[in-house]
Amino acid sequence: MAWIKPTLCFAALGLAVAVVSGCSRTEPAVEQPPPTKAEIWAAIQPRATRYRMDPAFIYALVAAESNFEPKARNGSARGLMQLMPAAWKAVSSRPYEPTVWDWRANLEAGIDYLAYTRSYLQKKKVPFSYPVLLASFHYGLDHMEDRRWDAGSVAVPDNPIYRELWRGNLTPVAVPR
After folding, report:
1. Which of 92, 101, 115, 161 would be 64's cystine partner, CB 3.0–4.6 Å?
2. How many degrees, rounded to 5, is the angle at CA 171 between CA 63 and CA 69?
3. Helices 55-66 and 130-139: crossing angle, nearest 10°?
4. 176 within domain boundaries
5. Residue 106 and residue 79: Cα distance in Å, rounded?
6. Is 113:136 a contact under the CB 8 Å cutoff?
7. How would you label 123-162 residue by residue, b for 16+ Cβ within 10 Å and e otherwise?
8. What is the pLDDT of residues 21-79, one digit of tens each?
9. Which structural domain, as residue segments, surrounds residue 74?
């Protein structure tokens, strides 16, 4: 009968763990509907103004990167702005996962990274142009620096919006009115 006590203790401990872990579960978050294009356009405005960037360029970049899909994923790039972990870390102290999936946080970090990229280009004395900013955002600062900031030295992504942005057309996508 000495074996009963330890067995009962382990059974009680297992039940206690099961009860406690069951109590600590959180209900899954209610899935929010994806943002409308008008909501995305409105959310771009404050940061575009803050950084003195053309909001239509940012809006077109969102269209080119994710087709306005906040759950877009391509390799390790995520969300509306298709941010990579290193880009996220450069501008945000918030954790990449799961925050990258919050469309507003992704948009804010993406615009912050555009501003960070522009600032980096200014420090390197690179004459500003949206095509150079776009190439640096898309291919990365190191990649473009290795090519002496020449946007013509890298392949234009096979996307009609990207092609227009690369040509300097900042409004290839109609913005909501």
Report:
1. 161
2. 10
3. 30
4. no
5. 6
6. no
7. eeebeeebebbbbbbbbebeebeeeebebeeeebbeeebb
8. 443 343 445 677 999 999 999 999 999 999 999 999 999 999 999 999 999 999 999 99
9. 37-166
Q: Are 165 and 171 in contact (CB under 8 A)?
A: no
Alpha helices in 28-82 (DSSP H): 37-51, 55-66
The residue type of 59 is: Y
CATH number at residue 142: 1.10.530.10
Output DSSP code: residue 94: S
Tally the domains of the chain.
Answer: 1
- Backbone Cα Rg of the chain: 23
State which amino acid sits at residue 57: F
Closest by alpha carbon to 152, among 168, 166, 133, 171?
166
Rounding to the nearest 10 degrees, give the CA dihedral for residues 58, 95, 74, 143.
70
Rounded Cα distance, 87 and 117, in Å: 10
Tell me, yes or no, whether 21 lies in a domain: no
SS3 of 68, please?
A: coil
